[in-house]
Amino acid sequence: MEGEQLPEASSQADERSRLVVVKHEPFNAETPPEALAAARTPTPSFFVRSNSAEPELSLATHRVTVEGAVEHPFTLKVAELARGPLRSLPVTLECAGNGRTSMTPLPEGEPWQQGALGTAVWSGVPLAEVLQRARLKPGALEVLVEGADGDASKRFARALPLAKALHPDTLLALEMNGAPLTRAHGAPMRLLVPGWYGMASVKWVTRLEVRTQPFEGYYQRERYIYDRGDGQAIEPVTRMQVKSLITSPAEGTRVAPGRVVVQGMAWSGERRVVRVEVAVDGGDHWRAATLLETPRPSAWVRWAFTWEGAKAGRHTLRARATDEAGETQPERAPWNRLGYGNNAVPVRVVEVG
Amino acid sequence: MEGEQLPEASSQADERSRLVVVKHEPFNAETPPEALAAARTPTPSFFVRSNSAEPELSLATHRVTVEGAVEHPFTLKVAELARGPLRSLPVTLECAGNGRTSMTPLPEGEPWQQGALGTAVWSGVPLAEVLQRARLKPGALEVLVEGADGDASKRFARALPLAKALHPDTLLALEMNGAPLTRAHGAPMRLLVPGWYGMASVKWVTRLEVRTQPFEGYYQRERYIYDRGDGQAIEPVTRMQVKSLITSPAEGTRVAPGRVVVQGMAWSGERRVVRVEVAVDGGDHWRAATLLETPRPSAWVRWAFTWEGAKAGRHTLRARATDEAGETQPERAPWNRLGYGNNAVPVRVVEVG
Q1: Which residue from B313, B331, B332 is facing A23, i.e. has the nearest CB?
Q2: Alpha-carbon distance values, A154 to A52, A148, A214, A216, A218 (Å)
Q3: Are residues B196 and B68 in the same domain?
Q4: Residue A195 belongs to a domain with what CATH number?
Q5: For chain B, is the Cβ count within 10 Å smaller at the N or the C terminus?
């Protein structure tokens, strides 16, 4: 067991060296900007968001309890699940707090800029298959997924509505980018909820409980909620909102006058992005960018825009994405007390000349 | 005359090399961040905002017409005025568009970040003295000050209400930081309107006209107005609003854990700043900073705050100033179509460790 942990710990140290640290304990770090320019984010550069210290669990021995409103509660051996077959999907994960530092007034919480974001190919077994083995009882409402992180009073645990839990793309993931999960990313097994902000993708899964009553835990009711602070009803944070990112020209770079290729990413939770537009300088003059691949749900799409006739001096670039439901990124996202879901149009200041 | 212009042109080239260029023609450039950390901004680092090409006027021969609703219209020889005595004042000048790139939606206009700002000691003759020589007629309402820049159809010209024009601190300035004005800063003579945004301090003054009817020129009625775009009345841009700047730690720097000294500037147009507060990380926990000098109107005051126990990782710092009238910087300034007067609380992301 010692021997099995060693390579993992080593790859983890390597991983951390490429991240932009936000907090050391618990470890929270962003994907560096250059890694966000690639279609797939390499694991050593993939952001890490943890609410507590990272548990150390062994793939060989770790077991997950499956219980609650099921006919056949059982204990799942993760090592058996890891033998496959595994289903693989490219999925974009974004922390709900990504972009918090651009919200005004500045909310409390981890000071994420724009790097709590990444896209990997995830491989795992549909959660639905495991639930089917346990056979749901009538009245099943949601599936509580509990991690091994946090102490007993504040375990990281999240309940997923039954329909989303049974979606074939909702995985108990064992691999990321073709290799076993690293400890920081939830080894040996995490939930992966495509299209939802990262908090739903519980790491270090240790217990599944099918519930007939809504779960009221801390990370369900006190955090990951939109509290507008204006007396409006509080809503849970779920689906990633439509958003885009400008990856090139990079922040603070100088580009030659004339033709400048602007590039970036766009995504919208469970929906397909259908349009990305770019505006050069301020005002309301938006022009269509080109999508560089066929958009699919739950993963970002790359886009490019050719800016002709860039003149020497300082300019601003903005990008905005629209999804198949017709939702467009706002220039300013609605403020909320905990600073979630900031999907505002990105503004990039560029020096030409 | 050739000989007289040469040194000026040469010092100007030197000046431009230290500025952060926003536009080459007409020349617009920001004060570099490091220069904003000094109580007085060196002339070669002092921001330049011009709406048209810079006129080339000779101190030896330039004359200013004084006319309109006056008993004794006359022609002012600038060289005579320059012989003194001159009145000297430290005055902070901020472009009305400073901070425009942080407004959302991003307005059109020069993409100023936070460097269209500087403080110099200005020396000149009170405008009131010149007006007294001409003797105002009854019914005088405002004083139109015209620059030599812009073509005949769109000359840069601004009218100042009589009370402000007659204020003893409103100067026809001939020197900046103890030396004759440079061409970029309005040589040989500019208006200096302490406490008002920079557009009021007309450069390259060529004509003064005492008016009995409101001036309706382009730079008075079409620009430098607050147009909220919501049907509210359009208001002229006048007084600089209460604002602060964090100068240290500088953007993108890493500081050692423990005790971190946070420093900056604060100003509020014609009013004194009475309080600066700092918040570490998000939320609403503001603590008093120390003002490092006795606040005076029209010039910024330096402040410092000691942040104890800074832990490794990323943190955010905010500063907010309050003036003697009780006005406090907002976390977000009201949007307006042309992007003026952004006095929002500054947010500085700092890496500790």
Answers
A1: B313
A2: 9, 11, 17, 12, 7
A3: yes
A4: 3.90.420.10
A5: N
> Residue B261: helix, strand or coil by DSSP?
strand
Range of the structural domain that residue B280 is part of: 243-352
User: What value does the mean pLDDT take over residues B20-25?
Assistant: 96
Residue B113 covered by a domain: yes
Pairs of CB atoms within 8 A across A/B: 98
Between positions 123 and 182 of A, the ones with CB within 8 A of B are none
Residues of chain B with C-beta less than 8 angstroms from the C-beta of A333: none
* Number of domains chain B contains: 2
Q: Are residues A136 and A181 in the same domain?
A: yes
CB atoms B106 and A349 under 8 Å = no
pLDDT, tens digit, 9 for 90 and up, residues B181-208: 999 999 999 999 999 999 999 999 999 9
Rounded to two decimals, the ipTM of the complex is: 0.90
User: Read out DSSP for A14-53?
Assistant: HHHHTSEEEETTTTEEEPPGGGGGSSS--GGGS-B--SSP
B330 to chain A: nearest residue by CA?
A: A105
Q: Is the pLDDT of residue A15 over 60?
A: no
Contact in structure between A117 and A95 (CB atoms under 8 Å): yes
A89 and A161 both lie in a single domain: yes
The answer to whether A34 faces chain B, any CB pair under 8 Å, is no
A276: domain CATH number?
A: 2.60.40.650
Same domain, residue pair B89 and B154: yes
